[in-house]
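anyone else get weird line breaks when pasting these?? whatever heres mine. first is seq + tokens for prot A
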Amino acid sequence: MMLLLIALAHTPWFLFTSEIGATLMHPADGNLADRIAQAFTIVVVDTRTHTMFGFLFAYGIWQLYSRQVAKGLPVEDARRLLRTRHWWLLAFGLVHAVLLWQGDILGTYGLIGLIMVPLFFNRSDRTLKVWIGVLLAISFVFAVGSFAAMQLLPPLPAVPNAQQPILAETDVLAALVLRVAAWFPGLLSGVASLALPTAFLFGLLAARHRILEEPAKHLPLLRTAAIGGIGVGWSAGLVQVMVHFDMLDLPNPAGFGSVHFFTGIFAGVGYAAAFGLIAHHVQTRGSGLRLPGRALLALGRRSLSGYLTQSLLFVPLLAAWGFGLGAHLSSWSAMVVAIGAWIITVAVASLLDRRNVRGPAEVALRKLSYRTLRKRP
């Protein structure tokens, strides 16, 4: 399900002939079906999925590190493994951006891993909690301050969207150059915005206490995080929907985007907690997973391959340098494309799982990451 949210977040970017409204890449107009698709995406998906994956990324890093140390690998070698892995994630992200999609997130997570692991991996729980509080406070002041400041200004002219010219470029080589040029600022903004570093620290703290692996021991915390985090995120999302639909009279409606972005931290953590509660429900039911659940689990185990495959499926289909279908779609039909691409990845992952075949991207990343350990005398 997590990769479905990623697909839903990305496909609106490819509506490159639409006039952009007050929210990210969503069109300013549309019929009833489009409005429903926009509302769902703004409330549930936009600026929420990246923090959820940031949380889970940190959680997975700690699991990998703990497993290696438990097997007897020296701490310095385990840390070197993580560092190598993050450099390769950064490289994967660059290749992804060069070939397909400037909105890549792999490079951002690789960069965050390179920065956050040395700074925080050996810190105490108390230090992590303090820094979570500091980052949240800074982000809150910036979000609310930006929103308030923009409303004190007279109406500002719309800022040209930097992404549309990239996706509307029909020349393959020119589009490639534009994608790479856009990827580097996005790479840095993912760290500078503080949302992903904050989600990373939440995930690292949760992993230390095995909160998702042992949900039965942490049910009150998981329920509080899920209800509170999703509640905060969706409440701000509903306000953003009203802003997007021109239901609120604001001098500069785009200014609320900073608040919407900030609350994505809480929604992302809340989603991770909700998945922990779902896992607990499956465990306590004791009857095992049915076919749909097994297929979703198979994709989860091949999430890197699934993520890249989604781009391979819908980017050439929608971008102007490919088939250019994005020029003929609206919000609801773009959502159908996203769901279709995700269903294909679920089916392929299920087939690979039945044949006991790992995802190709996971295999490549593992081989590249562990190669330095094998070379060590």
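and prot B, same format (seq, then tokens)
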Amino acid sequence: MVQFADTVSWRISKRGLVLSNPDGDPYLLDHAHADRLPELLAAHPTAADLTRQLGDDVQAHLLVNDMLEAGLLCDPASTTTGAGPAPASPLPPKRVVLTRSGLEIAGIAHQARIVHRILFPFLSTIYGRVLVGAIVVAGLVSLLIGRPDAPQVSTRPWVDATLGLGIGLACAAAHEMGHAVALVHYGRTPGRAGCGFYWGALCFYVDSSSGLTLPRRARIIQALAGLAVDAVTVSILAIVAQTSSTTLFIAVCWRMAITGILNMVDNGLPILQVDGQIALADYLDEPDLAIRARAALGETLRRKPKSPITAQPSWLPGYGAFSLVGGISLLVAGAVVWWWVIGDLLRALFTGNPAEIVIGVYLVGPFLLGILFSIVGLVIEVATQND
């Protein structure tokens, strides 16, 4: 008899059955009978019976075999009966894994639970909500006042750049911790946390795939949790920039507040495949929205007949075009704003000593590479999308 593995969670979406396994990648089963799979498994069928109930064709055989091999399905009887030696116990996962781009660390759930245990009781009270609201309102007022009337770079540009990098990394880590804490709040366990170099810039991420099978409202909140953290950190930076009497803090905090807003726009708009687009996909119950939309746009541009996965809904090509044009426009506009905010610092760095020039190259190099390859990637994805 086969059943879902104990670690597997699932939900039924418009596109099929969404499965989440903490030990592997999430899955979307786009099968004619995928929505019946939980009901069929409740009757404790054998693998052969399940294959027959799913259609008894090649696709059904492949589906059942693939799910067994991926650990999504298991047969408890096969592990408790039968001749031969018992299977070896699986090795515990490594706490730290070195990847091609950086490090992945297990155990982020422990830190997320600590943060949740400390912050959530206070934030769930009226006092906590008023405090957060007051910080955001004060931050908004500080931003509307405009750039402080002070030098935009201190007398030691390398200190500005180094402090800004540190604050930026701390804000990015707080953003990802927001996603992890939201998962803990809804009873799920965050996967591995990672830090690595993306186009040369140090970035952070948290595996949130265990949240894919949460109820819709919880999925949307979890997707936007990082942006809520960003709203607070940007507000604090703006307040410090307006109230500080130190040129270094004024310059750095204002610069990081504006770049933080830029990051919030990039993450929040449902264009690029980040938080805003994920939240929209959750709201529409379209788990593979971005991939299908760009595939539909590619078929439309090449005047090819629609494939079964892109035929519905009818607005898919339009959203694909919107995300492509909007994504390119957003990246270009972001580059302009980024230069407006950080241009003074870059000029000071590139006219300084060799160490300051190296810091300037590190600041501008990954950003330009990210812009270039993101634009090229968007275009190539549409142009070469296969059915």
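btw re prot B: The radius of gyration is 24 Å. The first helix runs from residue 37 to 42.
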